Amino acid sequence: MDLPTVAPAAPPLDGREKLRAWADMWLVDHGFIRDVYWNLHSVAPGVWRAAQPAPHHLRRAKAMGIKTILNLRGRRDNCGSYILERLACQSLGLTLVDFPIRSRSPLDRETLAAAGRIFTEIDYPMLLHCKSGADRAGFMATLYLFLQGGVPLRQAMKSELSLRYGHLKQAKTGVIDFFFETFLAQSDGTADSFGPWVTNIYDRNALEARFKDSWLAGLLIDRILRRE
């Protein structure tokens, strides 16, 4: 079960530790790519989405008026990107909230409930991010527009779960789209019905099994048999 928590205070680093963190961020965590393209986009007034930020990205976020960073990768004490993110947030006076969610398998009920609640608990403006800004960021951006923005779910999905951000529903990350489609099929599709559906109807294991079956069937038809 993954729940959001405010990141603890960052321990001080000496020069060698900072150098290792920067090297890890750039070379292991692919930070050099995000330096070229951060995948920053507005979701709604006061809400932004992006890829994993480096310290200079966080300075930019601070200048934009951002108060809260919602880290959808979770706490990763041995990851240079997280080490530097926590230090930068502390230095800039930004609140860092760690909320690890998955993009290739369905979330459990407790995590989904927390995802719905967090939008009413944090300080805005906020920036939410995952590693690339494509899938987990897309899931939470869709959920925000649907639950808080009054946007119909299909419209929110079209807006936030898009190739524009690097999201591919034909890949295993398509379980995100399948999750929302399952909700629409099993409910009246309104924001008010989302919480009760998660609590009373949602079956994570069944959804995962159905998605695997449909994904493998699609792979067979589209990639192997190459049918039109």
Task: Give your account of this protein's structure.
With 228 residues, the protein is α/β, with parallel strands linked by helices. The protein has one domain: Alpha-Beta Complex (Protein-Tyrosine Phosphatase, Chain A). Helices cover 49% and strands 10% of the residues. The protein is built from 10 helices and 6 strands; from the N terminus they run βααββαβαβαβααααα. The chain has helices spanning 15-28, 31-36, 55-63, 80-92, 109-118, 136-147, 153-160, 175-186, 194-200, 204-224; strands at 5-6, 41-44, 47-50, 68-71, 95-98, 126-129. A 6-stranded mixed sheet has the order 1-5-4-6-3-2, with helices on both faces. β4, α4 (80-92) and β5 form a beta-alpha-beta unit. α1 packs across α4 (80-92), α3 (55-63) runs parallel beside α4 and α6 (136-147) packs antiparallel against α7 (153-160). The longest helix is centred in the C-terminal third of the chain and has 21 residues, at 204-224. It is globular, with a radius of gyration of 18 Å. The N and C termini lie far apart (41 Å).
Summarize the helix and strand pattern as letters.
EHHEEHEHEHEHHHHH
Radius of gyration: 18 Å
Query: What overall geometry do the principal axes of the alpha carbons give?
Result: globular
Proper CATH architecture: Alpha-Beta Complex
Short descriptors:
228 residues; alpha/beta; Protein-Tyrosine Phosphatase, Chain A; six-stranded mixed sheet; 10 helices; globular; disordered C terminus
